[in-house]
Amino acid sequence: MKRCLLSLSALFAVSTSHAAHIYVMSSQDAATDNATMSMLSVYGHTGTLGSSFNVFDGTESLAGYDAVYFIANYNWAWGDMPNTGQEAIRQYVANGGGLVTAEWVGWKVAVGQFQILNEVLPITNFGSFGYSLTETFTRDESHPKINNLLPNSFSMNLTSYAGTTSYFTGAKPGATSFYRMSDPATSIGLAGWSYGMGRVASFATTNGPDQIVGAGGRLLSNVFEWATLKQNAQPFAIITTEGEEFAGDANSVLGLYDDDAYASFNSPSTLQCSIIMGGVLTTIPTQLTFSAITRATRPGLAVGVAFWDYTAGVYRFAEGQVAATSFTNVVADAPQNVARFRDGAGTTAVRMSWLPINDEDPAQDGWLHEIDFAGWTYETN
User: Fold this and answer.
1) Would you say 154 and 137 are in contact if contact means Cβ atoms under 8 Å apart?
2) At 232, is the secondary structure helix, strand, or coil?
3) How many whole angstroms separate alpha carbon 119 and alpha carbon 99?
4) For residue range 283-339, what is the model confidence (pLDDT) as tens digits?
5) What does each C-alpha distance from 51 to 27, 69, 101, 186, 364 come to in angstroms?
6) Separation CA 196–CA 193 (nearest Å)
7) Is 85 helix (H, G, I), strand (E, B) or coil?
8) What is the pLDDT of residues 53-63, one digit of tens each?
9) Which of 135, 203, 346, 356 is surrounded by the most beta carbons within 10 Å?
10) How far apart are CA 40 and CA 140, in angstroms?
11) Three-class SS string for 243-303?
12) How far apart, in whole angstroms, are the C-alpha atoms of residue 275 and residue 323?
């Protein structure tokens, strides 16, 4: 019995390998806010209690913070976030900041709010929710930071704010489901992805005081580490290898929604387009992700991302999906043995390719493929 107790004590030990500085959006409930700030302190992080989401208009600087913690639980009925605040967070994440959300952020997206931030979130949700006061999380996809010191499955008590859980129906293309919930069993409990050079994680739970202790507190701390303990890179070179360059250069993919995008037409013979970007990784990666905010100006195309393998001298396919006609985040994780995607000088390269999904004649002769923002996030040992 003593060995068992010691084992449990070690499992939820409060040591942390990385102390993050977090901007905490206030829930406007003292008990909830105090529990959040206490949890951060227990796990070695620091936090600043900021505005409620409904008054966050972007005038408060997020510079100096490693991540934003966006909860909308006690104050869930307090309307929308000003568009200027949503845009400030979107820019912050694209440029390397972390974002962690808890409910009812996803539910409010489903009912028409936070529509600018919806682009940044890794989950989809059709508005269903639950009231269970206990929930079991079971590991879906493994990640050493997310899963650190946690068993494959664990239970948490939940705090109700007119409900306790949203039923995330799926993760967006390129996003990862880290944990599944027991109620219902098919629903995602925690998902994450890269957006530009930042990372975003979304909980399906309200993350109230009853939850963020024990295993729940350890998981939230781990998520802050995952969202912040990384390195970033952006392209120093960009070139069209199939199709015709129309506008922009490498500088055009360094700023988000700044009316300056890199754009190329398709090849008139193959109807395809390929664009290669090169960047520099200052250290050898153990995990590597590429993210681009991109669109095509005609429907019916697929877009794929491949990483250049410096060992084999070939591109390795990593991700493919239907190309959107509005700017959308395309995310790709490099295949295993990621050190091969960096040469001795630190250079890395990716290729984005577009091609028609079917053989029908297009309704137009040429169309543009635009990249507004691109970047890598990577981890090292």
Assistant:
1) yes
2) strand
3) 13
4) 999 999 999 999 999 999 999 999 999 999 999 999 999 999 999 999 999 999 999
5) 9, 11, 15, 34, 49
6) 10
7) helix
8) 999 999 999 99
9) 203
10) 25
11) CEEEECCHHHHCCCCCCCCEEEECCCCCCCEEEEEEEECCCCCCEEEEEEEEEECCCCEEE
12) 14
Per the CB < 8 A criterion, the answer to whether 263 and 370 are in contact is yes
**Whole-prediction pTM:** 0.94
**Count of residues for the chain?**
381
User: Is residue 279 within 8 Å of residue 233, measured between CB atoms?
Assistant: yes
**Separation between Cα atoms, residue 67 and residue 250, nearest integer Å:** 27
Question: Which amino acid is residue 313, in one-letter code?
Answer: G
Closest residue by Cα to residue 303 from 278, 327, 281, 336: 327
Task: Give yes or no for a contact between 23 and 52, defined as CB atoms under 8 angstroms apart.
Answer: no
Identify the CA nearest to 339 among candidates 277, 282, 283, 284.
284
Interhelix angle 30-42/214-228, rounded to 10 degrees, is 70
Q: Which residue's entry shows tokens 């387009």?
A: 273
- What the block records as the tokens of 179 is 């944990």
